[in-house]
Amino acid sequence: xxxxxxxxxxxxxxxxxxxxxxxxxxxxxxxxxxxxxxxxxxxxxxxxxxxxxxxxxxxxxxxxxxxxxxxxxxxxxxxxxxxxxxxxxxxxxxxxxxxxxxxxxxxxxxxxxxxxxxxxxxxxxxxxxxxxxxxxxxxxxxxxxxxxxxxxxxxxxxxxxxxxxxxxxxxxxxxxxxxxxxxxxxxxxxxxxxxxx
Length: 197
Ligand SMILES: Cc1cc2nc3c(=O)[nH]c(=O)nc-3n(C[C@H](O)[C@H](O)[C@H](O)COP(=O)(O)O)c2cc1C
Hints:
Elements: E1 2-7, H1 15-29, E2 33-38, H2 53-56, H3 68-74, E3 77-85, E4 88-89, H4 91-99, H5 101-109, E5 120-127, H6 136-148, E6 152-160, H7 172-187, E7 193-196
Parallel strand pairs: 1-2, 1-3, 3-5, 5-6, 6-7
Antiparallel strand pairs: 3-4
Helix pairs in contact: 1-7
The site of flavin mononucleotide (FMN) has 19 residues, from helix 1, strand 3 and strand 5.
């Protein structure tokens, strides 16, 4: 299995980064090849509404995000991982989501066959508070994003109650389960996770 993950926290070695790495560790232990992109290291923009993709389904922006279209189309699993910022995904993640517009155009306007039914999407998110509706907004955004890019979202790994940089390392049970979750991805037997720390 080829996995592409987009790590959307600006904090390298922060909670999202660490949690995602444990998930990827589990997936690699089952033979997956992984391309993990830390979005903060890229220079890219969100959609600028130039309308060029309406012609051919190809984004006109040429930047560090451009090569990721091929990665998205050629991967078997795509993981989006983001911290919760103001009940939302981070702006780095949102810019990546907006770049999915070219694929939405390809799929829905130009009727290009970009959907691969065997391809799976996974959402990982981590927030500091424990509000009941913490993930309501982001779940909707990510479900719509995966649909737009022709991927079936199969699962999410959501964590509430973790704030300080690296704090997730204090929760061994969570990290052990993240490794197990990574294994489940490769075995296509994934169960959703919701941790309230
Ligand atoms: C700008 C900003 C906005 C935040 N907004 C929320 C929020 O609305 N709800 C929440 O539960 N946590 C919020 N947090 C806390 C982060 O989600 C939390 O610290 C998380 O563990 C950060 O993950 P990271 O280390 O991967 O960046 C916010 C943090 C920042 C910096």
